[in-house]
Amino acid sequence: MLSINNIEVVYDRVILVLKGVSIEVREGSITTLLGANGAGKTTTLKAISGVLRSERGEVTKGTVQLANRRIDGMRAHEVTRLGLVQVFEGRRVFEHLTAEENLVAGAHKHRDRTRLRDGIDRAYAAFPRLKERRHQQSGYLSGGEQQMLVIGRALMSEPKVILLDEPSLGLAPLIVEEIFSVIRKLKDEQKLTVVLVEQNATLALAIADHGYVMESGRIVLEGPAEALR
Ligand code: ATP
């Protein structure tokens, strides 16, 4: 579904951050990307989703393919239109909008009212708490609810592939378990393909099918999640 072939990424034309990274992601699987702070996990996700450019980064070597179509060099909105969306680290909700308005904002791809309503209902079915909080200003939601909201908002674009950057960061274990079980369910029931970046390896390997470990801009270990566990 997604194929990253030997990519190199440079920031500001001189800072070499990814030094030949290759990753294969099967359709309908959860692939986790593990590694310490600064290893290059977030940069890898940004290289895939096309947001690298807006941070003065560039893929200088290698290719990224989504379902056999080359997407490196495309802009983020074009990549989203092809069915791939990135959820950033740090739960960036539109704080002054309600939870439901945040979901509507995620549906910028289509204007059809029925589809919009269906998307909102699907987000609420995945995360019932969001429905309870739908009229609340999202800046006042708990950290866990905000994480659910940014994932729900990403789902509004009806993606085939979702990239999740550290969804567990700073959240209580019970909430993380709840969010991870939803991610698993989306994969099982809707065949969603997931790339999950995590620092918490134990957690990530518990739900992933396959894993990669990064160190200083390179992949140093790879294998089935069971073996990596
Ligand atoms: P974290 O868990 O902290 O997000 P990470 O594994 O995701 O770590 P990256 O955020 O991809 O790592 O960072 C990899 C390296 O690239 C780091 O050394 C970082 O300082 C550098 N870097 C990231 N963004 C930029 C940027 N916009 N300009 C220059 N260097 C950057």
Which kinds of small molecule does this entry bind, naming each only once? adenosine-5'-triphosphate
Which residue ranges are poorly predicted, with pLDDT under 50 across at least 5 consecutive positions? none
Q: Roughly what percent helix? A: 25-40%
Termini distance?
24 Å
Tell me, briefly, the overall form.
Answer: globular
**Strand proportion:** 25-35%
- Give, in order, the helices and strands: EEEHEEHEHHHHEHEHEEH
Number of helices: 9
- Structural class by SSE content: alpha/beta
| Arithmetic mean of pLDDT | 94
By DSSP, the count of extended strands is: 10
- Biggest β-sheet: strands ordered side by side in the sheet: 6-7-8-3-9-10
Question: Quick one: biggest sheet?
Answer: 6 strands, mixed
Rg: 17 Å
Structure description:
The protein is an alpha/beta fold and 229 residues long. The protein contains 9 helices and 10 strands. The longest helix has 18 residues, at 173-190. Adenosine-5'-triphosphate binds at residues 11-12, 15, 17, 35, 37-43, 55, 57.
Fill in the keyword field for this structure.
10 strands, 36% helix, binds adenosine-5'-triphosphate, alpha/beta, 6-stranded mixed beta sheet
